[in-house]
Design brief:
Helices cover 32% and strands 18% of the residues. The longest helix has 17 residues. It is globular. It starts with 10 loop residues before the first strand and ends with a strand.
């Protein structure tokens, strides 16, 4: 599909029964539909159709080696998709599904290589958003769905964000309002000897270990490598990026804290580049500390879920105002804060200025 020459009339649908029925018919006929989940908006197509998966990659402008997550509406579906379902998978499904956890298992041949990025594993999740579950059930298939943004851009947390990136590229968008969590699901790989987190999220390492014992964090999260072939979505070196140059400013001796050193350095950087359009990403406690009119609120430092739910919208706001340089405070390194910081680091291309 050449999106430069082919423009699709993108429908904007609601979450009422008639709208979901229409969206399901589009999925069944090989179309693409963006829909809300509890994490971000997904871009859905028939997971068992190689052609639909190719359409997803084309609509996103996404490399086809980046696997798609298969969304299901009941745990019985796992046994149709996965060749092996270990006890640890069953325990995690019982503990966290429906919810923001994606489990990687060996795939059955029913899942085309186009959906898995050529890997012999499949990433599966059961979302908890009622509209997404309804859409999956009514589509009478499984839905492959990455985030509904063009590749590399901040993930969408509202239908309006999806419209910005996907109007004319996909068949329909289901408007379910703002999402709740705001960052993508945790991904855990159960095909390795020790289960490994490939993408951090709302379900944390300690939460997983409370259910299945020892869990590792993949080294690509701790030491990102731009040459690495992704084993899961979101493992690219740069991701979620605004158009302007984003730099995180962090106090080396107090990581994740907004100290006077951080505030002073950001204000110095603002002064040094007065000829540029500058934006500062900050939290409620520090909105009055910076010498620029372009203050973009991330949330509250005492509640990282507010930062997570605002992060991608804030990065898109930087584009809306045409920010050329963007400076951000760092985020608390507690477990969930670390997941949010993972996204912020990718948005910055790992660019951190230590003070």
């Amino acid at each position: 599909m050449d999106n430069e020459s082919i423009k699709i009339n993108t429908l904007l649908l609601g979450t009422d029964e008639k709208s979901i029925d229409k969206a399901a018919e589009l999925i069944k006929s090989g179309g693409l539909v963006a829909f809300p989940t509890e994490t971000v908006y997904g871009l859905g197509g028939d997971a068992l159709s190689a052609d639909s998966s190719r359409k997803i990659y084309a609509a996103k402008g996404r490399p086809s080696d980046n696997p798609l997550i298969v969304h299901i509406a009941d745990t019985a579906s796992v046994y149709e998709l996965a060749a092996v379902v270990p006890d640890k998978a069953k325990d995690l499904m019982e503990a966290f599904w429906p919810g923001p956890l994606t489990i990687i298992l060996p795939k059955k041949d029913i899942v085309p290589d186009e959906t898995t990025g050529g890997l012999d594993t499949v990433a599966i999740r059961m979302p908890s958003h009622p509209a997404s579950l309804d859409l999956i059930r009514k589509s009478n298939t499984f839905i492959a769905a990455p985030s509904a943004n063009t590749s590399g851009r901040p993930s969408p947390t509202t239908a309006q964000h999806v419209q910005e990136d996907m109007t004319g590229r996909i068949d329909a968008i289901i408007d379910g309002g703002p999402v709740g969590i705001g960052i993508e699901s945790t991904i855990i790989d159960l095909t390795t000897e020790i289960p490994a987190i490939l993408r951090p999220g709302y379900i944390t390492k300690s939460m997983l270990e409370a259910i299945i014992g020892t869990v590792e964090i993949d080294k690509a999260i701790l030491q990102p490598d731009p040459k690495l072939r992704p084993r899961a979505p979101g493992m690219k070196y740069t991701h979620y990026a605004p158009k302007g140059k984003l730099t995180i400013v962090e106090d080396k001796t107090h990581p994740g804290e907004v100290t006077e050193n951080v505030i002073s350095r950001i204000n110095s950087l603002i002064s040094e580049s007065s000829d540029k359009k500058i934006a500062v990403l900050t939290t409620e406690e520090h909105v009055k500390d910076y010498n620029t009119e372009n203050i973009i609120l991330l949330g509250n430092t005492k509640n990282n879920i507010t930062v997570a739910s605002r992060l991608y919208a804030a990065l898109r706001e930087c584009d809306t105002i045409g920010a050329e340089l963007i400076y951000s405070e760092s985020i608390s390194r507690d477990e969930f804060g670390g997941a949010v910081m993972n996204r912020l680091l990718k948005a910055a291309g790992q660019r951190v200025l230590y003070v």
